[in-house]
Amino acid sequence: MRQACGRPAPAVPGGGAPIQRTSSLPRGSSLQRTPSGSLTQAGRTPAASSSSTAEPADGGAGAHATRITATRLGVAAFLSVLPPEHCLNTLHELDAALTEGLRLDTDDLHITYLLTPLSCVTMYDMSDNTWRSFASTLETLTPAEAALASRYNVSGSFVRDILTFGGSETSASMGPASYNARLDAHLRFFCAILLRELMSEVSILEVEMWSGLPRGRLQSLQLYTASHANSVVTLCRHLNWHEAALVFSDFVRRLEFGVRPELVPLLDVPHMTVPRARLLFNHKISGLEELVATPPDRVADILMVRAACTRKCVVRVVGERVPAHHGTAVSPHTCSPCVQKYVPFTKSADSSKSVTSSSAGALMSALTHLEQAQARQEQLGGNSTRMQTLFNMHLAVARDLIAGATELLNARVARTAA
Questions:
Q1: pLDDT at 99
Q2: pLDDT tens digit string along 291-307?
Q3: Which of 12, 195, 233, 339 is a plausible cystine mate for 16, CB 3.0–4.6 Å?
Q4: pLDDT recorded at residue 367
């Protein structure tokens, strides 16, 4: 028994002599057990702390110096902040995708699937209505998208089995490991479809109504996928996969804002929002140079456009997408015939298509909001004072946008000159 501190040793109970410390070890030394079983004192030398194996002082024969260095994959995994197992899975998927080829004819679905994390959603997030929406979406995929789903072993029969058996791995004909792998692939593919809709500037309210997932869950999925995509881009850059990093880097900003690629340059401007960027793009202002060259009065007039259709009009008919205007700016009365055109699909004798009650209610609510917006616009147009006040507000915003774009252009020129 030894005392660790230099204080006086305590007295032995019963009046005996105090316990004396028989020996002391220098700081940094320790006791090691020899092969014979006895303990010997071993000091910690500076060489042992700086390298894994220290050379003898005399430099005699048999001395080996070990130097541990990180591989390129190890450095890339460390800088990407991905867990080792996720990094290996991502590397395997990217290698297979680059070897077999990216499906660029799937409307960004393949790239979105590769950037979607493995643990995107769980079974607890999926209700029966969500699985039914997923099954109906799989039935309406294009041939290229169906081929992509088959590549990753995603099928509508598996979704129907989940609806029938309740998603229990014991009820599946395959083993638990194969079942979990297929389940993860289906959940990931479903998340990729949702993210593609959000990057196509589809309203998050519409995606919520169609998918059955709460709005907060969709927003967290979007932000989490954007962070994961940034890590994948870092991994590709440090592996010298510059082409893949260039392809994936464009999707990071698109996932952050939920926009199409043509709006990404405008969103670099401070105080720029997605509706403002879409309005400017629809009026032939697609970059920083065009924004700087446009007079502030013209930008303010563009920003005052109300109730513009800032994306392609989409009507959900049993999971089908019905494109109407493909992103052109239209007024509310132009959108109304588009919506009314597909309302008669409520029940047809020669077609099995039908609009659900929630979809029909959403369409009628959209028409009501459009009519109210048009009425407010007409009422506002009759009051010149309020109209001038509103124009001055948009003029101040336009000047801020132009000033921010000018600063970005000057910084870009300075970096190029340096």
A1: 87
A2: 999 999 999 888 887 53
A3: 12
A4: 54
Report the distance separating Cα 45 and Cα 275, nearest Å. Answer: 65
Residue whose C-alpha is closest to residue 83's, from 91, 71, 93:
91
> Residue 409's Cα: distance from chain center in Å?
28
Q: Tell me: the pLDDT tens digits for 314-342?
A: 333 333 343 433 333 333 333 433 333 33
Are 93 and 226 in the same domain?
yes
Domain end, chosen from 258, 291, 311, is at 258
- Three-class SS of residue 43? strand
Burial label for 56, CB within 10 Å (0-12, 13-18, 19+), is exposed
Beta strands in 261-330 (DSSP E): 316-317, 320-321
Instruction: Give me the DSSP letters along 108-177.
Output: THHHHHHHS-TTS--GGG--HHHHHHHHHHHHT--HHHHHHHHHTT--HHHHHHHHHHTT-GGGSSS-HH
Alpha carbons 12 and 18: distance in angstroms, whole number: 5
Distance CA 298, CA 292 (A): 11
Range of the domain at 354: 260-418
Quick check: helix, strand or coil at residue 31? strand
Residue that finishes a domain, picked among 243, 258, 273: 258
Closest CA to 230 of 244, 258, 251, 214: 251
**Tokens found for residue 141:** 């995929």
**Separation CA 416–CA 418 (nearest Å):** 5
Instruction: Please provide residue 188's backbone torsions phi and psi, each rounded to the nearest 5 degrees.
Output: -70, -40
Q: Which residues of the chain have pLDDT under 70?
A: 1-63, 167-176, 306-384
Main-chain phi, psi angles of 320, to 5 degrees: -85, 150
